[in-house]
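Section 3.1: Structural characterization of target chains.
Under the original work plan, the team committed to producing a structural model for every single-chain target entering the pipeline before any wet-lab resources were allocated. The record below documents one such target. The sequence was received from the expression subgroup and is listed exactly as submitted; it comprises 405 residues.
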Amino acid sequence: MRALRVISLPYITYQYVKPDNHLKGTPLGQGMWYPLNPATNTGRCPMAVYAGIDLHSTNSYVAVIDGEGKKVYEKKLPNDGPIILSGLEPYRGDLRGVVIESTFNWYWIVDLLMDDGYKVHLANPAGIQKYKGLKHSDDRSDALWLAEMLRLGILPRGYIYPKEDRPVRDLLRKRGHLVRLRTSVINSLQNIIARSVGGFLSSDKIKQLTRDHVADVLDGEEYLALTGRVSKEVIDHLTRQIKKIEKAALQKVRPLPQYRYLTTMSGVGDILGLTITLETGDIGRFSGVGNYASYCRKVPVSWTSNDKKKGRGNKKNGNKFLSWAFAEAAEFARRKDPSVRTWFNRKAAKTNMMVARSALAHKLARAAYHMMRQEAPFDQKRLFGYSVGPGGETDGGVGETTKSD
């Protein structure tokens, strides 16, 4: 056969070949158009290819394999959008997907590839298993393994949080960071007061913006007063920034129906409702209430064999922000809701305080799932299986708590 001419269409190049002898299925002497693979410059028909990208802070290792698992392309590229796109461009027509491992900096490259029309998969690092007997592993093998898992259909996928909602979620996470910084400064200031004057000043008084209680306590010595004044200025600045973030986030989240229902739950106010709403995202991505409770880190972690404990699983697998939110909600509900406190005291009497706190947080996570799924307000009777009165009486004579306790 001899090639007569070549034409190019978007992403695919075709070569017209005229046979020297009769080809089965074609009239004698009639040529045919064959797709020309632009990457390998061969006349083979295109086949499915899969890409894996091992992402780092300054560079990425890109690897592409074919449908048989054979390496087609590999190269270490800088974290520059046009360069990475140009490396994948020859395989665009055949590419079945690109796998990115969920590292700390995946936002930009996932958005880049999705905006350019690629099908992107986010790999869950906690679910990736490699052969433990390997003598050598590097960026190249990691990228090839990501592509191989996609080819075999065993890739543990992570959730790609919607691009338009990510900034608000990260803004609320920044609020949590500022709260922790403010708490550390308050604790330091309280230690200074205890050492210097033998007194105690509550955090609520320290955080007040309308009056400086710190100056009233630390006014006897010049350098001690300066310490208190500087600390108070830092605390007040952080408080103002925290309030600014809360105001902006509330404007975005208040129209969402799941937020309105979550704030009806015992122990959940504006901030916890914000956190649960934004960190959960689309509740439909969880197939069941157990999956959601596990994602919130409210499911016991253990490995057993023959009724004997063989170790512990990955207790950090899940969302740490949701774990914190439901733990806080459980504590607020225990303090402020007499009905919840009655159930909590019963549970603590049968087990201990820590188990009771964990069980209550687990119940609240399950309740939140159903509320968001069904778009229904909080129902205490559905939470406990019966209504608990302030005096400890139960409605309906059900007696003990449900099996999920």
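Residues 6-11, 20-29, 38-45, 396-405 have pLDDT under 50 and may be disordered.
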